[in-house]
Description:
Elements: E1 23-26, H1 30-43, E2 47-50, E3 66-69, E4 83-88, H2 92-102, E5 106-110, H3 114-125, E6 132-138, H4 145-158, E7 163-167, H5 201-207, E8 210-211, E9 214-217, H6 230-243, E10 246-250, H7 255-260, E11 267-273, H8 276-286, E12 294-299, H9 308-315, E13 319-323, H10 327-334, H11 338-341, H12 345-355, H13 366-387
Parallel strand pairs: 1-2, 1-3, 3-4, 4-5, 6-10, 6-11, 7-9, 7-10, 11-12, 12-13
Antiparallel strand pairs: 8-9
Helix pairs in contact: 1-3, 4-12, 5-6, 8-9, 8-13, 9-13
Amino acid sequence: MGIARGSSAESSGRSWLPDERGVYCVTSDPALLDDCARVVAVAGASLQSAQGFAGGWPMSEPGGPLLLGSDIGDVPPRLPPDTVLVGRSSDRDRLWRRAAELGVEHVAELPYAAGWLVEFLGQRSAHAEEGTVLGVVGGCGGAGASTTAALLAAAASHQGVSTALVDGDRLGGGLELCLAEEPPGGLTWPDLAAVSGSINPAQLESSLPRLHGLAVLSWPAAGPSKPVGSAAIGGALEAARRAFELVIVDVGRGREAIEDFGWACERVLLVVPGRLRAVLAGSAVLNELPPVPIGAVVRGRLAEGLDAERLAAGVGCPLAARLPDVPAVARAAESGRLAEYARSPRIQRMARDVLEGFPKGTAGTGSTGLRRSAARRSKALRALEGAS
């Protein structure tokens, strides 16, 4: 079962592990694009380019360095950590004002900063083996996204994958309590409230509590906690990406959580119960998610006349996995024993379906693709309504 938004490509083995990342350039200025292409060639990297963000993310694998032209007005609400604003040295004042507006840390005035930019891209190429950040979002209330995220993370850890489970739901009561009866000691989100700038990946890895071999970054289970800003969240997720093979984020359904956590993910799972109303709600949530590869996990019993493939089509994304209703799993999550069930053959198969189902080279749909996707979703929803 594949996960895609746009065209898919062949997947094999542990295809969710990142490929070598190229450099992406978004500018409508041909001369600026030529300058960037020369710099990228000297750095020994590959280049993909687009003239803007209209219709969605224009890259096949959003995760490598992004060279953003100062001529681009409309940008996504969250840019990759390795974004460099590029522009002309002759337009220096406007370039730096634009960087301040966007909150971009790196600026390259071309052609004078070409040498620095080559070095920057070369350093980022050394991180080609960074891990993948996978978000898990509930398509409706009570969908079981937190349980699914914890099961996937524990299953991946049992398979020998270096994995971190990240709690993106500030009001969720502490995700680690699915895996332990008592909150473990160690670093939690409020401890990162005062962090600014980058975080050392090795220090983050060594500071996180471990549950059954799984690293966990969670919100406190109870009581008041310090607010954590978007910059600190982004820095922590980027450090986790560099410290672990796989980072699974329980995103939460609120718009703030999706902007802070969802837009930092390279792939997203949308968890949907097997009911028609849940499909309608999931379709609405899908529109809030970043334009990255997205797949549906259909949970629980299916309404009469429905099947998982049709439900996923109704939401508007491919089916990633089917997770039948297992009452014992819910009880295990309540008692902090969920990791035990992650070892079961059924959960292990589900995890492999998801983790090996991401196709390589998935492209953004673009405006035409999004319209076609919306049309397919409407058709599928009508079919579902007729069956219910």
